[in-house]
Write a structure and sequence with these properties.
The protein is α/β, with parallel strands linked by helices. 39% of the residues lie in helices and 22% in strands. The chain is built from eleven helices and 18 strands. The strands form four sheets. Strands 2, 3, 4, 5, 11, 15, 16, 17 and 18 form a nine-stranded mixed sheet that branches. Strands 1-8-9 form a three-stranded antiparallel sheet. The chain has a three-stranded antiparallel sheet with strand order 7-6-10. A hairpin with a 2-residue loop joins strand 8 and strand 9. Helix 7 packs across helix 8 and helix 10 packs antiparallel against helix 11. It is globular and about 60 Å long.
């Protein structure tokens, strides 16, 4: 029996399930059963578009590491590290300034863990953030929070997924008036408490909104195309826009400091994406056109530059990451 059949049987037996539970179950099956990245998958993340993305993240962390006094016990950590591409590019910059610490990955997908292990055989893997080591951590969460389940409400009624014959449908129908990820807030609180106690910084890079906007942002992607979120349970990537205001509040409540959130394009260009693209093009003139296109995709308003946001959370004694002050 397929996951979709199991889900329908569950709803027939127990009744409609909340959007939160539907998204959690679908994504758990989805990520456990495939490598979703790249042309042969369902979507492409920024680290897979260009090495420049990971290099900008690494340059930011290298600067933080130096300004924090180059603590020998600091470790690199990534939440949902995909194929390990971002870590490869970021650690190249970090190690260039003397970082020799451990690397820790929070990943539940056996398929992606195998790919990460191929690139980072000395890493330590965790199923969740609870087991992270008690030391200063430099954490990267790129397109991590958007895959965490959200609950939705239509006025005061929680939206559920029900069956109409064999067809999944949302109940009640109507415009979504509130969307909330309690899981995201809980994880942010745990990470922030860890940073507040042990030191370190978290970079959150994801698509989302800044000031608590509301509405239905649940979406599904399959083979690089938007599809109905209920059409392919367990076989399409389900995400929702990240509420950066809620994450910031959770971080501050847990005792850490949180920066403002700005657009990814602004942040990358401030860190030096333009000069890096020019240098790469100079070294690889036959790829100059492609490199310029990668820069546009990462930083322009027509690409990822405006939709994606960047925010940092850090220990009170650690520096504010470059580009996020003010």
């Amino acid at each position: 029996m397929s996951f979709a059949d199991d889900l329908r049987a569950r709803i027939r037996a127990d009744g409609p399930i909340g959007v939160h539970d539907y998204m959690a179950a679908s994504n758990a099956h989805y990520y456990a059963s495939r490598d979703p990245l790249g042309r042969g998958g369902d979507f492409t993340t920024a680290p897979e578009i260009s090495q420049m993305f990971g290099e900008m993240v690494g340059a930011c962390l290298a600067d933080i590491f130096i300004r924090a006094g180059s603590p020998a016990n600091a470790a690199y950590c990534e939440l949902g590290p995909g194929r390990g591409t971002l870590a490869t590019d970021a650690l190249r910059l970090l190690m260039g300034v003397g970082f020799k610490g451990e690397r820790h990955f929070v990943e539940t997908s056996p398929t992606l863990r195998a790919e990460q292990e191929r690139r980072h055989p000395t890493a330590t893997w965790h199923d969740d953030v609870d087991g992270l080591p008690e030391r200063p951590l430099m954490i990267v969460a790129n397109e991590f929070f958007d895959a965490l389940p959200v609950g939705q409400w239509v006025d005061e009624a929680e939206r559920t997924v029900a069956l109409d014959g064999d067809t999944l449908r949302f109940v009640p129908d109507g415009p979504v008036t509130r969307e909330e990820s309690r899981v995201a807030a809980k994880i942010m609180a745990k990470i922030s408490a860890h940073l507040a106690e042990h030191g370190g910084v978290l970079l959150v890079i994801d698509y989302g909104y800044l000031a608590g906007e509301q509405g239905d942002t649940l979406q599904a992607v399959k083979r690089h195309e938007r599809v109905d979120p209920l059409a392919h349970p367990g076989a399409a990537d389900l995400t929702a826009h990240v509420d950066f205001a809620a994450l910031r509040a959770a971080a501050q409540d847990a005792g850490a400091r949180a920066t403002r959130a700005i657009t990814q394009g602004n942040w990358l260009e401030t860190l030096g994406l333009g000069p890096r693209a020019q240098a790469l093009a100079g070294q690889n003139p036959d790829r100059a056109h492609d490199i310029a296109g990668q820069r546009r995709r990462l930083a322009s308003d027509e690409g990822m530059g405006n939709l994606f946001k960047v925010m940092a959370v850090h220990h009170r004694g650690w520096p504010v990451p470059a580009g996020l002050g003010g």
